[in-house]
Design brief:
single chain; 13 strands; alpha/beta
Length: 363
């Protein structure tokens, strides 16, 4: 396996969101700490430029990895577009699989549920490892009307079952853990250890970080919800691309990660995506989370956070129309309870190290 003191691994990143990029970076970094002989080739398309700047890979491959989730401008799923994509999936992946097989020269594979990564590794008789907090087969099984066929569901689950191990952090739906029992390894939260925490401006205001989705789908809603001078008690940290002007706003530079500002915030507002809640739990920051229609991942995350009282919740409609009033009530009635629960939780955040050690022992 070890050629010229290098073990070659291919890392497949799906093109949806940023959370899996953060998780894979943490795992790759921990693997390199354990053995500097790893040589990583990373494949993605939509976030390739971001990956080049932030991932410890030596080679980058610009290739779309097949999984898509399409939304309308109001953040609701575009069922027709999603269904049309997956109706052709089994046919459209054949050239992809052929190319992957022809180019394959790796010792093992890591992926956030790019199913073809597991399938190619199986064909090449090489070990593969999956890392995710939900699987797309589970996700699509919760969408009605159905957007994938029984044949595609069977392909997804068969491909995932060919992985050597599947790593799942907290807040993974129990159905997934049960379905993939025998492959499942439950691990702590996976967050970056090499965080470059960025400072906020010096202020006596409450610092509120407002986070868009990885695909930028919340931009218009944020601009609608945050008029200038909404309160002189609050300072909103927002992406510079939103072009919000006024002394109520701190514009985070375009080349900075919003999550690097979590530690300095008093409150984080955003969608209940797994990366957002992982970072907030890691740095013990209260959350006010915006629900999203017909998104099984978000619905499950919200339910779990409600059980633990680690976050407050607001609908997208109320965020757009009544955010100032709701934020005032949140700070008055919920914030301090959630802040106390965050300070006292017992979640571990060393999942990246645990996974790296387990992969190394499994090779």
């Amino acid at each position: 396996m070890n050629i010229n003191n290098q073990v070659k691994a291919k890392v497949y990143l799906s093109d949806e969101g940023f959370g899996h990029i953060v998780r894979q970076r943490a795992i790759m970094t921990e693997l390199l700490k354990l053995d500097s002989g790893f040589y990583f080739s990373l494949q993605t398309n939509k976030h390739l430029a971001f990956a080049r700047q932030n991932m410890p890979a030596q080679t980058f491959i610009d290739r779309y990895n097949n999984i898509s989730w399409h939304k309308k401008t109001d953040s609701s799923p575009d069922i027709e577009l999603i269904k049309s994509h997956y109706d052709l999936y089994l046919e459209s992946i054949q050239p992809y699989l052929k190319t992957e097989a022809e180019e394959f020269d790796y010792d093992f594979v890591i992926s956030d549920f790019v199913y073809e990564a597991f399938e190619v590794a199986r064909q090449q008789a090489k070990p593969s490892f999956g890392v995710a907090h939900f699987t797309w087969d589970w996700f699509f099984s919760k969408i009605y009307p159905r957007v994938i066929s029984d044949a595609l569901f069977k392909y997804f689950t068969s491909a995932a079952n060919s992985a050597r191990k599947l790593y799942f952090p907290p807040f993974t739906p129990p159905e997934i853990l049960k379905y993939y029992r025998g492959k499942t390894v439950e691990v702590p939260f996976i967050v970056r250890e090499d965080v470059n925490h960025k400072p906020w401006p010096k202020t006596n205001r409450l610092k509120i970080l407002v986070m868009d989705s990885g695909a930028g789908l919340m931009a218009e809603n944020i601009k609608h919800a945050l008029p200038n001078n909404i309160s002189d008690e609050w300072l909103f940290g927002v992406q510079e691309e939103l072009e919000l002007i006024g002394d109520s706003f701190f514009n985070v530079p375009r080349n900075h990660l919003l999550i690097d500002y979590v530690e300095g915030a008093d409150l984080v507002v955003g969608r209940p995506g797994f990366n957002t809640l992982s970072e907030c739990i890691a740095y013990r920051k209260p959350m006010l989370l915006i629900s999203e229609s017909m998104n099984p991942e978000m619905e499950f995350n919200i339910a779990e956070l409600k059980k633990l009282s680690l976050g407050g919740f607001i609908s997208i409609q109320d965020f757009r129309s009544n955010f100032g009033l709701i934020l005032s009530q949140f700070f008055k009635f919920e914030y301090h309870m959630i802040e106390g629960n965050m300070k006292n939780h017992a979640f571990r955040t060393d999942g990246g190290r645990i996974i790296a050690e387990d992969i190394l022992s499994s090779l």
